[in-house]
């Protein structure tokens, strides 16, 4: 049994291959060249979860593919629905790891810094790693440490599995008699790709899994695949400066930076990455970030009660960002039991925002989505890990 498993792991994972790599594979198999694009479309446009679904590929070709390659399709393990429409998917990888993706319909238009049609926006927050190595003290994912990187195929497949689920739900709602908003939303969904926007803000540090993240973007942006617009994808980083510079040169999608503090003393305590690349180095990288039209960098600032939420913090933040063409997303902390940080509350949040606005810094409040279902980074997957551990006799 064991040698077989090892052999399987060595087979190329089809969903992580570029179209050019699929062309080589198809060529080696003696198949006609156009089969590569056909296969690519099954994998990334239709989001097929199995070879059986690829009905217009000849059966012998599919059988050979199944022998010589792998399809690392994710399985939906749990779905939690929040009262605000947010849906949190816990997904299982083929090797049994749990990751999460959070679906947020109808993001407020005033949160947007892009030009997508106001109203119907369906955003998915995807994970890039199982766990995370960065060790931020307030973050649930950090408590797992880094278990492993996700492959490009696994990053993209979160989008395809959720798209498939959304399509199935919309179809069920159309068939059923459920009246009201849900049905209307289902009817308007249609098409091949319900999701309109992606944010790389789930578990993991995207720029610490650089190659797979870049490949996943190539796949998701591909005209023969999911065909997302680069203006509708944002990658968030805790501040890995050298990779931010590379990312600016090699990608056109948007960047968000988790700042979360205004002095290195404070930030170093919350985010160990600050000891390697401090606030000055981070801001320097943002200033040099190539910002074509509509590609303003966003700063994320998680407000932690009594830690980084004072008027002085807000004044310092305004001074740091003065004159930079950036915007700030203020995020009220979603409390994780046991980590010892608290949500500052609405009044403090608004007072903090007002100080920024008065100083001409664009600042939005990012509504805390899915609070009732623990939708903050890593919360559901960590819960799943504990359940798994508890289940071991
Ligand atoms: N590793 C990347 C992306 C994933 S974390 C990064 O750090 O940017 C995405 C965002 O969630 C970060 O801005 C992080 O500061 C924030 N975050 C983590 N835990 C949170 C919590 N419990 N409540 C609110 N925001 C949280
Ligand atoms: Fe990793 Fe981001 Fe969590 Fe920090 S906030 S531990 S970088 S996922």
* Share of β-strand residues: 15-25%
By secondary-structure content and strand pairing, the structural class works out as alpha/beta
H-E string: HHHHEEEEEEHHEHEHEHHEHEHEH
Regions with pLDDT < 50 over 5+ consecutive residues? 179-192
Q: Averaging pLDDT over every residue, what do you get?
A: 88
| Structure summary, number of beta strands | 12
Question: What gyration radius follows from the Cα positions, in whole Å?
Answer: 22 Å
CATH architecture of the largest domain: Alpha-Beta Barrel
Q: What is the CATH class designation of the largest domain? A: Alpha Beta
Number of separate domains: 2
Spatial shape: globular
Number of helices: 13
Assembly annotation? single chain
What does this structure look like?
- The protein is of the alpha/beta class and 393 residues long.
- It folds into 2 domains: 14-68, DNA polymerase, domain 1; 75-373, Aldolase class I (TIM Barrel, Alpha-Beta Barrel), CATH 3.20.20.
- It is built from 13 helices and 12 strands.
- The protein has helices spanning 2-10, 19-28, 34-44, 59-68, 152-175, 181-189, 210-221, 241-250, 264-270, 279-288, 311-321, 346-358, 379-391; strands at 75-81, 87-92, 98-105, 122-125, 129-131, 146-149, 197-200, 233-237, 254-258, 298-303, 327-332, 362-365.
- The strands form 2 sheets. Strands 1-2-3-4-7-8-9-10-11-12 form a 10-stranded mixed beta sheet, with helices on both faces. A two-stranded antiparallel sheet has the order 5-6.
- Helix 12 (346-358) links the parallel strand 11 and strand 12 (362-365).
- Helix 5 (152-175) packs across helix 6 (181-189) and helix 11 packs parallel to helix 12.
- The protein is globular and about 70 Å long.
- The two termini are 24 Å apart.
- The relative contact order is 0.12.
- Bound molecules: S-adenosyl-L-homocysteine (SAH) and iron/sulfur cluster.
- Iron/sulfur cluster binds next to loops.
């Amino acid at each position: 049994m064991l040698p077989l498993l090892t052999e399987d792991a060595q087979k190329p994972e089809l969903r992580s291959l570029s179209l050019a790599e699929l062309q080589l594979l198809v060529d080696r198999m003696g198949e006609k060249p156009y089969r590569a694009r056909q296969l690519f479309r099954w994998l990334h446009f239709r989001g097929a979860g199995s070879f059986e679904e690829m009905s217009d590929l000849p059966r012998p070709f599919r059988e050979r593919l199944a022998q010589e390659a792998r399809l690392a399709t994710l399985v939906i393990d749990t779905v939690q629905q929040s009262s605000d429409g947010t849906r949190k998917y816990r997904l299982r990888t083929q090797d049994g790891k749990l990751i999460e993706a959070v679906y947020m319909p109808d993001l407020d238009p005033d949160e947007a810094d892009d030009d997508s049609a106001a109203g119907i926006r369906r955003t998915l927050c995807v994970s890039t790693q199982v766990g995370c190595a960065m060790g931020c003290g307030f973050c649930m994912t950090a408590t797992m440490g880094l278990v492993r990187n996700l492959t490009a195929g696994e990053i993209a497949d979160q989008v395809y599995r959720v798209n498939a689920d959304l399509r199935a739900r919309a179809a069920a709602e159309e068939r059923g008699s459920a009246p009201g908003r849900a049905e209307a939303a289902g009817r308007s969904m249609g098409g091949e790709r319900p999701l309109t926007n992606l944010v790389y803000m789930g578990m993991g540090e995207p720029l610490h899994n650089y190659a797979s993240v870049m490949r996943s973007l190539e796949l998701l942006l591909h005209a023969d695949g999911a065909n997302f617009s680069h203006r509708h994808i944002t990658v968030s980083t805790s501040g890995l400066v050298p990779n931010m510079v590379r990312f600016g040169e090699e990608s056109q999608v948007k960047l968000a930076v988790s700042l979360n503090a205004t002095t290195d003393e404070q930030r170093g305590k919350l985010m160990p990455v600050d000891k390697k690349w401090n606030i000055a180095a981070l801001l320097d990288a943002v200033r040099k970030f190539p910002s074509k039209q509509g590609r303003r960098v966003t700063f994320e600032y998680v407000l932690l009660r009594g830690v980084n939420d004072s008027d002085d913090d807000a004044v310092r933040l305004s001074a740091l960002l003065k004159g930079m063409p950036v915007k700030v997303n203020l995020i009220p902390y979603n409390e994780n039991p046991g980590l010892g940080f608290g949500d500052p509350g609405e009044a403090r949040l608004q007072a903090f925002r007002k100080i920024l606005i008065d100083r001409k810094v664009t600042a939005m409040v990012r509504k805390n989505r899915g609070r009732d279902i623990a939708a903050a980074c890593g919360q559901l997957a960590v819960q799943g890990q504990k359940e798994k551990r508890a289940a071991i006799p």
